[in-house]
Amino acid sequence: MLEIKNLHASVGGKEILRGINMSVNPGEVHAIMGPNGAGKSTLSNVLAGREGYEVTQGEVIYKGENLLELEPEERAQRGVFLAFQYPVEIPGVSNIYLLKAALNAVRKYQGLEEVDAIDFLNLVRDRMKLVKMDEQFLHRNVNEGFSGGEKKRNEILQMAVLEPALAILDETDSGLDIDALRVVAEGVNALRAEDRSIVMITHYQRLLDHIVPDFVHVLSEGRIVKSGDKELAKELEKSGYSWVHDAPEGQTA
Amino acid sequence: MKQLTEITTPFGEVAAAKPLPGTELGWLQQLRDQAKAQFERHGLPAKKVEDWKYTSLWQLSQEGFSHDANEVSLGKTELAHVAALEDAYRFVIIDGRLNAVLSEIDNLEAGLSIKPLAEALDQAENMLGDQIDLEKPGLNAINTMLMHDGLALHVEAGQKISKPIELLVISTAENPKLASHLRNLIQVDADAEVTLLEHYVSLAETAGFTDVVTEVKLAENARLNHFKLQHESLAHYHIATLASKQAAGSIWNTNNISLGGKLARNDIHSQLLGEEAHVTLDGLYLVTGDQHVDNHTRIDHAAPNTTSDEVYKGVLDGNSHAVFNGKVNVHKDAQKTDSSQSNKNLLLSRSCEIDTKPELEIYADDVKCAHGSTVGQIDEQHLFFLRARGLDETAARSLLTYAFAVDVLQRIKSAPMRQALSNVIEKRLPKGA
């Protein structure tokens, strides 16, 4: 599904990612953990195609294509979904309009006709249940006046409607209280599937109590310094990140 | 004045073929003479006049417009296609002349009178000219000299009119370079309510000139929902004055949408003369290419407890130039005035220009006045978010542009009106930048 090979990336001339290697197979859930400044957000932004990030070395292969050569919308149309750490508010664009436009953009790429209005509404209603969102949110402007938890749920709703092949969840747990975290996690868990891969980027272990990953990677100073299974996350919880700086690259737990 | 060929305007000679209406009325003759004298003294406003600093009429004066139109008509289906509202009383002016066949003038509902200007003049002595200032630099004097057609709308006390009135002013390819001087008189008596859409449209990309003055008189507690949609050709000149006098408790809700024209200028003036009178001045301008649009608004809070609410938004692309000047004048006795004004602009290109200026003059001490103007671009974060959801850049920009403008539409309470105006606006949205 996703193959990251020796990825180096800079922001404003400063190298942030310094040789990331990672392989994600269909159906797998990977967690990337790391302290502040490790390069977690840079990695998610590079994968989504945000401007201002310069890839200086390496490549990212998604379903056999060079992901880095695609525009952000081309990535999305091919099934790459980024759940934003800080979802933006967009005055004047209703949630339902956004969902429909996004879904139709994916369908157009897939050679399908625009979604039928009634089918669409049924789909959206169904997916709203996953994240326990009230229907009134459909007619509100995207994230405008939403609480932190509502914004994150809204991201997962978009994911649920778009059914991506690869979802990158950037700090989806940040700013959530425990109840909101549970709702978001349940939504994500319901979307786990054999043909869908999920990459979670997080600072804290607690998200992983609710969405249990198949693999955990520790990111430090732009490199993955340790990879392992879910037990690795628990180890991190106990001992913190201080030890990771000394660990050699690629060591397994 | 009876020898019409004597009148040489900066826009060409006025043909004698069709006499101006109301020449038999002494007061009107006097008013026209006054206007003529005023015009001869001052001519067209020069750019050194503050109110015309950013808008030059020089090019307009060089076009050599004609005042003589061949009669043109449209089929009913064609008209239905051009009209913005499906269910409305239509009053149709084609190439500057009333089309009585296509207009609904007779058999209207109780309390509603719709007449051609010419037929209303004998009753209009206290109305015509009362809302406007002849001496104001602009075209009020020329319009008063040359007005030949227009809508006279009168709603009797207590009547709530069931359907909106659509004033359709259509320019066709049959009469290129035609100058029209229109005067509309809108009178709403006490406790009455009506909705009017002034709709200016070209059927071809030909040059023309619409000079229109709309005067509004609202009696106590009268309510006028007043919309204006101008999407004339990109070679067209549109110069308009829209002025009201409002008695106590009256409400004037205006929404001025300016999409067309090579040069479009609106001077909008609300005079809140009675307590608790309210005005809403909303507007939206979408300009591109070499278009120039200028909205000058003025609100006079001349009585206590009057309120005003103004939201103007602009989207500029290409080499377009937009001007917004919003003046709010709170008179000495107008305590407890509550006024809010905002002008927001979205620039889609590097070569467009906006000149925006709010002006407050406050002579009372217990008032609440807020104003602000902004100029910005499409937010890159918003753009990236939409692209990350699969919308291509063009679609994303177009959506964000619409989103910027849409709250002016969302402020329209009537759903059919909102829909009609959105339909036209969506077609004019820039497709990418």
Description:
The complex is a heterodimer of chains A (253) and B (433). Chain A is built from eight helices and 13 strands. With 253 residues, chain A is α/β, with parallel strands linked by helices. Chain A has one domain: Rossmann fold, CATH 3.40.50.300. Chain A has a seven-stranded mixed β-sheet with strand order 6-9-10-3-11-12-13, sandwiched between helices. In chain A, a hairpin with a 2-residue loop joins β11 (215-220) and β12 (223-228). In chain A, α5 (148-162) packs parallel to α6 (178-190). Chain A starts with a strand and ends with a strand. The model of chain A has no long low-confidence stretch (mean pLDDT 91). With 433 residues, chain B is α/β, with parallel strands linked by helices. Chain B has one domain. Chain B has eight helices and 21 strands. Chain B has helices spanning 26-42, 58-62, 76-82, 117-120, 140-146, 380-388, 393-410, 415-428; strands at residues 8-9, 12-13, 89-94, 97-98, 112-116, 151-155, 165-171, 178-188, 193-202, 208-218, 223-231, 236-246, 251-258, 263-272, 278-287, 292-301, 307-316, 321-330, 338-347, 353-362, 368-376. A ten-stranded mixed β-sheet of chain B has the order 4-3-7-9-11-13-15-17-19-21, covered by helices on one side. A nine-stranded mixed β-sheet of chain B has the order 5-6-8-10-12-14-16-18-20. Chain B has a two-stranded antiparallel ribbon with strand order 1-2. In chain B, α1 crosses α5 and α6 (380-388) crosses α7 (393-410). The model of chain B is unreliable at 1-6 (pLDDT under 50). The chains are: A alpha/beta (253), B alpha/beta (433). The A-B interface holds A 48-51, 71-73, 75-77, 82, 84, 87-88, 90-93, 97-98, 101-102, 105-106, 109, 158, 162 and B 379-382, 384-393, 395-396, 399-400, 402-407.
